[in-house]
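1st attempt posting a full record on here, be nice pls
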Amino acid sequence: MASTKINIKVGSELYELDLTRMPYFSSFADFQQRAGRDTEMLEHEDVPLFNVAYKGVEHGFRQCFRALGTDIDQYHILCDSLDFLCVDVLERSSINDLFQELKTGKPQYELEYKYYREVKSSKSPARDAAFRLLYSIISTEFTSEAVESQTMYNAVLFVVSHRAIFSYKTRKTVRAAYEERFQPSQKQLASLNRWPALEPTGSLEDDVTTEESSSVEDSDCYD
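the predicted structure (as tokens):
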């Protein structure tokens, strides 16, 4: 069975790519081979924010929040590059599917000798889902934005209101993307404003992706 990995120079940087994760380069490699060119070391012109897209694909999309700031325009560029590279970001997940994945970052509890104890759960899948939510807001064409807006709002509010799971960059950019794409009602804005994404001060950054255990702040308003 042929290897699905290739070495390729994109712009000025060398990468080892899994062609199944970036199907565009599979077609590119096939074209180069049919043209009789050397495929041992392929070269391709630079792709905007390719280094960020590569980190997301290889190490989890949560890494994109860590690599970028909070400028929503940068995320538009990144999403365009992911589309160009034919990356299957959503993997057929609906908004409801993403919402369920976001909730996996909450602590779980199990009964033990008449007492409930917290069971640590990985926050990484929830943080990856937050980027996929952002991507969906920016890139998905909805059949009915009025219908999807409410479901999307519930997911966005969940992200914004859970500081123990999602970083400052994540909360700020997800909200910014939602407000840019949709028009939240005054009631929705009031609920979102209960959870301001305040920039960390000093050296205390909350954009880590460690699996430390911490209390989760729940919002009681998702409507």
